[in-house]
Amino acid sequence: MTIDVPGEKQNTLSEKTKHGFKVCFERVAADPAIEGAVLISGKPDFIAGADISMIQTRKSAAEVERLSRELQQQLFLLEQSSKPIVAAISGACMGGGLEIALACHYRIATDHPKTVLSLPEVMLGLLPGGGGTQRLPALVGIQAALDMMLTGKNVRAKKAKRMGLVDAVTVPYGLEDAAVTTCKRLIMGELSRQEPKKKLPERAAEAALEDNPAGRAILFRQARQMVMEKTGGLYPAPLAIIDVVEAGTGKGPEAGYGEESRRFGELVMSKEAAALMTLFFAQTALKKNRFGKAATPLDTLGLLGAGLMGAGIAEVTVQKGVRVLLKDVSAEALARGQKTIWSDLDKRVRSHAMSPFERDRTFSGVVPKTDYRGFDKCELVIEAVFEDLALKHKIIREIEDHVRTDCVVASNTSALPITKLAEASKRPHNIIGMHYFSPVPKMPLLEIIVHKGTAKEAKALAVDVGIRQGKTVIVVNDGPGFYTSRILGPLMDEAAQCALEGVALHLIDHAMRQWGFPVGPITLLDEVGIDVAAHVSKDMAPFFEPRFGPRDRSALEAMVKEGFTGRKGGKGFFMYEKHKQSPVEKARAIVEKAMGAGKKDKPYNPGALAILERHGVKPGSKKDVDERELQERIGLRMVNEAVQCLQDGILEGPVDGDAGAVFGLGFPPMTGGPFRYVDAVGASTVVSTLERFAARYGKRFKPAELLVDQAKSGKRFHAKG
After folding, report:
1. Whole-prediction pTM value?
2. For the domain that residue 386 is a member of, what is the CATH number?
């Protein structure tokens, strides 16, 4: 049985696919000439998950529940077939695709690096609705199953074999033959599924935690505690997954399948799932080049600066088969950059994401340079040097002396106006901004900045490069701070104002984590770098201070002067020294975790507090703190600035604004982004809250005119549905 959806790059589980499976399974069951079957894909991927539109067309939780029950019943008939069905898996086997494979009697996967198995529904605010919550724990154990479903992580073939998720691993070109041979052996009774051999500690842990009610109670309590620590309870899907697995293991399969369908229906109708699904569609749309195909595809990239940003850009580029000329001022700097790239590639080998041969071939594509020889072959050059306008002007002039006249020159800058950078260029139409986020290999966003004179060809090439690098690409117009740095500024400013009022730093961070940010603003300062924040704050001051009032940056500047640069320097607002636990401390930590004790706040750095106090800042002196007001003060400053960016023409539309805030800055994903947040809460509510804060705290809370207009007209930024 070959899965090959006509006219699509990937197979997805849709209404048509579902019907096709039904017809094929019924034929296999009814035809006496068929003794067994192999399920294989006619495309590079097996099945890349369910077609979300199939779910979104349902109007109620009851309709979605019926859809889930139909799929469960279909896969139950497959599972109960007296004829062996072998799933032959290559490429992506995700979501509904893995649920189908789980219902088969034997699973064979190729060892190709692109072969991954996962149940990523949690990332869309959902749970597996085709029996996955019941079959996966039965196959690999409760702990391994929860780990997969709560994280949505990809599992590669060799690890899947060790877990028992697949029964055999083969080479890509031998998949069909191996699957057919296996099916024949199953028919003849020469082969049967074997449980994976586990080491004694694994068997002991399973016996203690999974094979008895008391152990399972501890396991599920720990799982809920972990979810609450990571999500603050803001996402219903992870807790629902735990509930459903617990129902199946405690009350039996019938109860488990019933609970899975019911909770699946509820989750599909939840506001969190709606927001996450719209983000998914936005991310998909932004992976298309709206400027058309690049006139000259990228073959060789020139890259100036082998620091963390430069090395990261080189890494994500060279992995796509593009040659990278990596230039820095010294061989030592280049060696450090190359070491970073090699280390990351080697980690991919250890996780079976690439072979040693692929690592070596990929790494050989990075060509270290201390001069500009070979740059005449580059279609694009990206400079990733220090954020200094004079230095960048000098670099742009140097680059243009050594490249072709049609070569696009991009600046990896987070705040310097591209229009000003283009003033140093002989060919300003080829100048563009490409703002990457650190660490580049992990952060999904690329913010491309265009000035009024940027040529369409330059835009097309920059977007094409970002898409090839696997990034979600937003294109914004030039202006101070562009979009992401500009909306981050007011958020950080308000966090600082709260600290000036005496609010404890950990309360500021905790409040914003509870609002949905992955980290709080104070921790973010340490992560970004206090030196970087101080530099950007100074650059942005002429733009922000007329609107928000003058700001005293002396405390930040003093911290930088005394070496408090954040995590990268080993000291910032919080302590980062590694403390080796004693045996007694380790034992206490294990007991506290089992008993449900939460995470403790990171300790303050006394040196940082001393500097703040010298400058009149005493975090923690204010005792009466309203957490909700804290969240709205800090969060709505960012929301208001995002709307102001749309009003000022920095953004082309709200989709870019939502994606940029979520994927670049961690704006609470369960809201869908700042513009969907306004739509959900209501523009009039947001405006009235801002006006209340403006009356109390000053003009920095003045609502954007566009936001006021939306409130008066009752309009939304996004269409309903």
Report:
1. 0.91
2. 3.40.50.720
